[in-house]
Each structure stands twice: as C-alpha cells, then as structure tokens.
Design goal:
alpha+beta, eight-stranded mixed β-sheet, 8 strands, globular
C-alpha cells in the first residue's frame, strides 16, 4: 500500500487511478504505437555519457553489450538513449544526415504497422530492416526531416526481407 500511495503522490493522481482500470477509456484510447525511446545521436559518446549522468543525477541504466554503441537512461518510465554516431551509421544515421534526434516507437506487430504507415502516404517509408537478429525496424521522416523509428514484434517471412 505504501508504494501505491507513493506513486499516487509522485504522479499526482488518485490511488483509484493507479488501482482501477477504466475499460471505457482503454477502448477509446487504443493506439498501436507506444513511445519506446528518444535517441540523441552524439559525436563525443563518453563525454556525453558523463554529461547526462551528471545532469540527470542518475547512472546509465543499460549499456549496449559492445559498450560504445548506445546507453540508456530510464526516467519516468521512458527511455532516453545516447547513440554513438560513429557506431550506428546505417541504423539511424547516414553520412549525409544532419539530424541528432530520433523518435523510437514500439508496436506489437511490426509488419502490420509497416503496412498501415505506408498506406497513409505521408512520406517515404523504408522497408523493414534488421539491426541484429532480434531487432527489426523501419524508418520514416517527419516534415522537418526528423527520423522516426518503429520497432516491435516481428517474424521474417520465408524467403522475404
């Protein structure tokens, strides 16, 4: 109970809001997209890690296995990732790109979301790409050329992608 009360104080909501589901609200607000991370693409990776640890007052929550590709900070149930510009070319940066900010969204069914977004005809959408065997994604750009990455549940089709 103490944790529930503390959460209600922290998020400035009633304990009922934390404990009870509002099925009517869930039915109205269904959205397949869930904000996963905000990626900041940085040039001086280690200097940026130290800066954000000091600025945020917390240590890195997760570091990529290779150590220098990305780190994550978890704040308010969201994730801020610092992406090392030198080690992600081709994933969410390109040599000709000038952006430093990527929105990352997660969906249950990546293939269905890919088809939905392509059908919207709101801009160019990449094919579904593989960063590594368990991480698939596609990119698009908003009108200001900011990258949007969508990732999620995905099983490659036989002989495709």
């Amino acid at each position: 109970m103490d944790k529930i009360i503390r959460k209600s104080e922290l998020f400035q909501v009633s304990t009922d809001t934390i404990l009870l589901r509002n099925s009517d609200e869930e039915a109205v607000n269904r959205n397949p997209l869930h904000l996963g991370s905000i990626y900041l693409v940085v040039k001086d990776f280690e200097k940026s890690v130290v800066f954000y640890e000091k600025f945020l007052g917390i240590s890195v929550s997760n570091r990529c296995r290779s150590g220098n590709k990305f780190v994550e900070f978890h704040i308010d149930n969201k994730c801020l990732s610092l992406m090392n510009e030198e080690n992600i070319i081709g994933h969410c940066t390109s040599p000709e790109g000038d952006y430093k900010f990527v929105q990352n969204y997660w969906v249950e069914d990546l293939r269905a979301e890919h088809e939905r977004v392509k059908a919207l005809q709101i801009g160019e959408v990449t094919e579904i790409l593989e960063a590594y065997p368990t991480y698939h994604y596609f990119h698009m750009r908003d009108p200001d050329n900011n990258v949007i990455e969508v990732t999620g549940g995905y099983t490659p089709q036989d002989g495709a992608e």
